# Entry
Amino acid sequence: MSADSRARDDHAAEIGASFDVVVVGAGFAGLYMVHRLRGLGFTVRVYEAGGGVGGTWYWNRYPGARCDVESMQYSFSFSEDLDQQWDWSEKYAPQPEILAYANHVADRFDLRRDIRFDTRVTAATFDEDTRRWRIETDRGDNVSAQFCIMAVGCLSATNRPPFEGLETFKGPIYHTGEWPHDGVDFTGLRVGVIGTGSSAIQSIPIIAQQASALTVFQRTATYTVPAWNETLTPEYRAAIKADYPALRAKARARPTGFYFPFNMNPALEATPEDRERQYEEAWQRGGLPFLGAYGDLLFDKEANDTIAEFARRKIRGIVKDPATAELLCPDNVFGCKRLCVDTGYFETYNLPHVELVDVSRTPIERFTPRGIAVNGVEYPVDAIVCATGFAAMTGSFDRIRITGRNGLTLAEKWQAGPRTYLGLATVGFPNLFTITGPGSPSVLASMIQAIEQHVDWLADCIAHLRDIGAASIEPIDRYEDDWVAHVNEVSQVSLRSTCSSWYVGANIPGRPRVFMPYIGGFPVYVQKCNEVMSNGFEGFVIDGARSTNDAPQVRLTERWRVPLDVEVISPAAIAARRVPVV
Ligand code: N01
# Structure
């Protein structure tokens, strides 16, 4: 059944029902979580605000949406049969195909029966007497669970800037992150797009094909690398499938959680001619691996200047109008904001009906009934697309009233920035877990790998707690403080911490400026999680366990043991500032 063909979920409100685990969200994280928990015999209820599974890929249906990690890797790795039987059509699959994959997974593993769709969790409250969570939804559900798992996504809560005069605009206003399910036909319309991040860069070339006029409002110019997307041949797929586990293992050993060849040498030790050749080759391979051209690009500003200048030369070579080309040339650190991957983005500005408006110095003044005003000029448009991004990492938590011990809310605790232990849990909120939460590699790794590692860790953890009859688990202050300090310290060695990106919450005025994902690399992080578990959940206090003289038995999911024969990027390499990350 496709997500779109479903009737609205009309389940009667469940009041007083009790589960082992409630999972919030049925994106890739929620889907795999319910699969693992059910396999372990736990009772689970999943609540999903959308009308179907898929999370990000359910909501982000804007034209041109597709992944920018190669599909053969941007997919679940937990089932060899699934890997073997699913065929990706393109190097970077389009959104409908990724959504179809999510639906296939839900059907194949019979996951829907535990999911309540069209149901948004509004509150989660910890009851200190019972040590259970009470979960409430906008449909009147009021249930309890020993564990509550937030699988709410890192980029889910849309950022809708409160432009003045918004309500006066006569035409439709769309947000890329909440795109109409029936699609939008811009044929013959004058369209305004606000923003030039990944969503805009993917959608602008397609919208330009339909619109009679397209005006792009740019606040910050963006670095983007060609995708060189292509159809996958049966031979290519077969070659990977012949030893898929090997590719998956290599991917897990990479700082990014996905595999691509990279060069650990420093850019500044190469001659200008060698650098040029290296960058050109990397550009011709395209995509996010472009940042792997040298090992020091995100650590040494001088090295970074060389790749930034190369990228600017490319822009000037593509965009014919020199003034437009200059406006499109970013002047910030290359890869500091999330690198974009495009198909024909810069070329779009050579079309006669496409205009670029700089709003970096004079911001958008207001929406008018017929358009958008900037610096006293009204740009007439029939429809507006806000490609303005998300309240990243913490925005999805802000939409739920989460109350832990002593009446403390998560919003209060995270007022100055999110605080977690390993991005998995937070002091004051026992038995509450976050999948790819702030403080974990999450958005700096291939998301599906990051999700699977968290889900497996949590499944192993919850099974262990059941084995020992424990009532609750909660991080210890000191360990959380140390982890938050470590996440912050590691971020300082990277140039990524230097610009106003959504990684630091700076895309939205008023949010605390904190580098939220863990930048120390995926395998280093996985090893840390493994150690914590192997040491009997070091850094957590476990309450109410049966007394036993046995040493704690842990159930670490085998594939997350980092094999000794893979090259792991070590903390020493990070300190030496030689880590190609994307
Ligand atoms: O959002 P963004 P996104 N006035 O925050 C501008 C993932 N993703 O949805 O840079 C004018 O990147 C804002 O300007 P500035 C990926 O991780 C992946 O595009 O803040 N402009 C910026 O240009 C990505 O990074 C894919 O100065 C305003 C844009 O809006 C993340 O999601 C595809 C403004 C927002 O860009 C977010 O991407 C899509 C204002 N008031 C997304 N407010 C793949 O390819 C904001 N902007 C897999």
